[in-house]
Amino acid sequence: MNIGRRAFLISGGAAALAQEVTFRTEVKLVRMLATVKDSNGALIVGLEKEDFEVSDNGAAQEIAIFERQTAQPLSVGLMLDTSGSTAKDLKYELDSIERFSKALFGSGNTGDQAALFTFNHEVVKRSAFTRRQKRIEEALRGVKAEAGTSMYDAIHLGSLELGKREGRRVMVVVTDGGDTTSRIDFHAALESAHKNDVVIYGIVVVPISNDAGRNVGGENALYQFATGTGGKTYLPTVGKELDKAFDEILRDLRTQYLIAYYPKNVPLTRNRFHTVKLAAKKPGLRVQSRSGYYGEAAPEMGSKGVGKKKAPESTQREAEYLRDLVERKQLVRLRLNDNLEHTGTIEYFDGSFVRLARPGQPNLFVFKHDIKYMIEV
Question: Which of 133, 161, 321, 362 has its CA 20 to 30 A from that of 126?
Answer without folding.
Answer: 321
